[in-house]
Amino acid sequence: MHSLITGTDWVPIKVHPKLFRLTCKLSAVILLSSDAARDDRWLEFEDEYINNALSYITALKSWPKFLRPLVYRHVKGYDILQQQWATGQNIIKKFLDQKKAQGWEPLQKPPSFFDYVSSQNKNLPVDDHVSMQITMFIAGVHTSAATATNALYDAAVDWDQMREIQKEVRETYRSCSGNFTRQGLNQMVKLDSFLKEVSRFSSPDLTTFARKSSSSITLSNGFRVPNGAKLEVATGAIYRDEQLYKDPLSFKALRFYEMRQGENAQTKHQWTSVSRRDLDWGYGRHACPGRYMADITVKLIMIELFLHYEFKSLPGQGRHPNIEFDGQVCSDP
Ligand code: HEM
């Protein structure tokens, strides 16, 4: 992809590694501490542990289920995961010692996720902290970085569609002198619509609302779900259903902005909305609790990029392709 730095020439860039690192940094500030976001060892841990864990899981899954408890230590990638875990432990231990020394006061203002958890559970073992951080990275960093990457790929296909969004970002930036609040972010309804269209077009999960029934149940319409049945909602297919979306195969950055102009629709069709029509984040009691963090993270990245750069695909390349694996969607590496 090409990137135009305002006032200079086009330069070719590889999008995903840069956005992934940026997402790791922002997530580290929110989840652990600003110091962690400046510590290359922690960023490498975040970055590499997730990728290594995904490769490891893929390799482990190639074994029949009943053999996995026997072979898991010998599958390629196990040793490196152990070493990386030890690095994570050392870093977290340093922050725990720091907090203990300052009477469990938060390491930063506003407090991070780690600050809340460690102040309320002073005896929580280091391993549990590392495990929680990793869980949050896996749930949040890949998905947010994938969304930001897809957003740039979609933007680069037709930058003319993006001009209105860039204008909205620049005007909002000027009106708040660059100090974005939650309210300021919410004002950018065109940016919000663009990201929701990105999620509709390249939903990171082809299916969401994955559940397994723990007992037989008959729903109010008579549909019987037997004990042990697995249920999933075909989000990817629903998002391409022409009965629900006009011209569903076209990318329309302002699609949801236009839908919000209808009567009583101003607060509907937002990127973080969860409903029977808004399935990106799952549905019901277990719908993604991290969506507000993702909303802030991805929007701050987009704002920074749209303030200073323009993007276009390399000549003749078109929209960078996605690949689908195991029900997930990611950009073709
Ligand atoms: C664009 C980014 C993201 C996408 C697309 C996404 C998507 C999802 C989806 C589809 C689910 C399943 C919901 C269900 O089963 O009904 C989920 C669950 C979850 N997500 Fe996210 N997520 C994102 C970012 C995040 C972030 C930033 C965090 C936190 C750091 C996070 C934490 C979680 C957790 C803890 C769950 C499990 C909730 C439960 O089972 O009760 N996610 N997410």
TrEMBL record:
<protein>
    <recommendedName>
        <fullName>Cytochrome P450</fullName>
    </recommendedName>
</protein>
<dbReference type="GO" id="GO:0020037">
    <property type="term" value="F:heme binding"/>
</dbReference>
<keyword id="KW-0560">Oxidoreductase</keyword>
<comment type="similarity">
    <text>Belongs to the cytochrome P450 family.</text>
</comment>
<dbReference type="Pfam" id="PF00067">
    <property type="entry name" value="p450"/>
</dbReference>
<dbReference type="GO" id="GO:0005506">
    <property type="term" value="F:iron ion binding"/>
</dbReference>
<dbReference type="InterPro" id="IPR036396">
    <property type="entry name" value="Cyt_P450_sf"/>
</dbReference>
<feature type="binding site" description="axial binding residue">
    <location>
        <position position="288"/>
    </location>
    <ligand>
        <name>heme</name>
    </ligand>
</feature>
<dbReference type="InterPro" id="IPR001128">
    <property type="entry name" value="Cyt_P450"/>
</dbReference>
<keyword id="KW-0503">Monooxygenase</keyword>
<keyword id="KW-0479">Metal-binding</keyword>
<comment type="pathway">
    <text>Mycotoxin biosynthesis.</text>
</comment>
<dbReference type="GO" id="GO:0004497">
    <property type="term" value="F:monooxygenase activity"/>
</dbReference>
<dbReference type="GO" id="GO:0016705">
    <property type="term" value="F:oxidoreductase activity, acting on paired donors, with incorporation or reduction of molecular oxygen"/>
</dbReference>
<keyword id="KW-0349">Heme</keyword>
<keyword id="KW-0408">Iron</keyword>
<dbReference type="InterPro" id="IPR002403">
    <property type="entry name" value="Cyt_P450_E_grp-IV"/>
</dbReference>
<dbReference type="InterPro" id="IPR017972">
    <property type="entry name" value="Cyt_P450_CS"/>
</dbReference>
